[in-house]
């Protein structure tokens, strides 16, 4: 088992799924950072632990299922779902997707860039009907490192700068379940916050800027920004497949607070 993959196995199984916070000093550096949407938590034993304890306190049976891992040995990205029953929601169950990009140093995690589909989780709380859990990866801990590929990165960078246009084989958020596609933003520019490749696969974290598309809220045309993470595959010089998770919940909250202008 590759060292980075072995570390993530310990993170997922022994820390998250067992809720064993005592392992964190062995898994994360002291000044561990977590970036999600417009927010960043810094400090393993302070901001990160405080936020995580809130979620695990509400969803006491919280579990994580790994669907996909890519790594080039230096970086690693993981597509996953978290699921469980919420005490605050009267025991209602939900499952929601996430895509995380990790960096590490000296066998411990240093930074995670992640987006999670809390928008879909809220839909399940509202209806009382949980989504199904996507199929787990057959052998995630046997994932082999693949070298970075500059051409794959170039293709994905260009696709992002084109506004992340709809492409066959690429699914956003909960669309893979058959939920109707939701176009959120008419992107005019993008800031790539992180991007790396492992062979033909490319992981990224991006912030798009543009005008809100009709149908998301009543603020159609407002200037907004939207964060996304994704893992895409490149074949024959084009994006061929992949999954993307967008911070729709964060965008909706900013709109509700009348924070719609972008710098």
Can you offer a commentary on this structure?
The chain is an alpha+beta fold. The chain has two domains: 3-142, Roll (Nuclear Transport Factor 2, Chain: A); 150-256, Nuclear Transport Factor 2, Chain: A, CATH 3.10.450. The protein is 25% helix and 40% strand. It has six helices and eleven strands. The protein has helices spanning 3-16, 24-27, 43-58, 118-127, 150-161, 248-256, and strands at residues 28-36, 39-42, 63-71, 75-85, 93-105, 108-116, 170-172, 185-198, 201-212, 223-235, 238-246. Strands 2-1-6-5-4-3 form a six-stranded mixed sheet. It has a five-stranded mixed sheet with strand order 7-11-10-9-8. The chain is globular and about 50 Å long. The termini are far apart. The mean pLDDT is 95.
Task: Provide the CATH top-level class of the largest domain.
Answer: Alpha Beta
- Largest beta-sheet characterization: 6 strands, mixed
Task: Give me the CATH architecture of the largest domain, please.
Answer: Roll
Which strand order does the major sheet show? 2-1-6-5-4-3
Averaged pLDDT: 95
Features:
2 domains; Nuclear Transport Factor 2, Chain: A; alpha+beta; single chain; five-stranded mixed β-sheet; six-stranded mixed β-sheet; 25% helix; 40% strand; 263 residues
Kindly summarize this structure in a few lines.
25% of the residues lie in helices and 40% in strands. With 263 residues, it is of the alpha+beta class.
In terms of topology, how is this protein built?
Layout: H1 3-16, H2 24-27, E1 28-36, E2 39-42, H3 43-58, E3 63-71, E4 75-85, E5 93-105, E6 108-116, H4 118-127, H5 150-161, E7 170-172, E8 185-198, E9 201-212, E10 223-235, E11 238-246, H6 248-256
Parallel strand pairs: 1-6, 7-11
Antiparallel strand pairs: 1-2, 3-4, 4-5, 5-6, 8-9, 9-10, 10-11
């Amino acid at each position: 088992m590759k060292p980075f993959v072995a570390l993530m196995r310990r993170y997922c199984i022994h820390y998250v799924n067992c809720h064993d916070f005592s392992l964190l000093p062995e898994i994360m550096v002291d000044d561990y950072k977590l970036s999600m949407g417009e927010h960043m938590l810094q400090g393993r034993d302070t901001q990160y632990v405080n936020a995580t304890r809130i979620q695990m306190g509400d969803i006491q049976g919280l579990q994580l299922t790994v669907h996909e891992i890519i790594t080039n040995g230096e970086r690693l990205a993981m597509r996953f779902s978290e699921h469980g029953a919420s005490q605050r929601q009267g025991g209602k169950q939900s499952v929601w997707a996430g895509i995380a990009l990790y960096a590490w140093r000296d066998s411990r995690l240093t930074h995670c860039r992640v987006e999670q589909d809390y928008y879909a989780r809220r839909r399940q709380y509202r209806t009382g009907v949980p989504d199904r859990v996507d199929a787990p990866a057959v052998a995630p801990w046997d994932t082999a490192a693949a070298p970075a590929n500059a051409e794959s990165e170039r293709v994905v960078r260009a696709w992002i700068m084109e506004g992340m246009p709809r492409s066959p084989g690429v699914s956003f958020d909960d669309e893979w379940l058959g939920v109707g596609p939701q176009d959120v933003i008419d992107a005019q520019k993008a800031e790539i916050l992180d991007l790396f490749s492992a062979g033909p696969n490319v992981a990224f974290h991006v912030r798009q800027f543009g005008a809100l598309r009709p149908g998301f809220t009543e603020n159609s045309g407002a200037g907004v920004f939207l964060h996304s993470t994704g893992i895409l595959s490149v074949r024959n010089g084009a994006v061929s497949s992949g999954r993307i998770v967008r911070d729709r919940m964060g965008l909706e909250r900013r709109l509700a607070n009348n924070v719609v202008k972008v710098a």
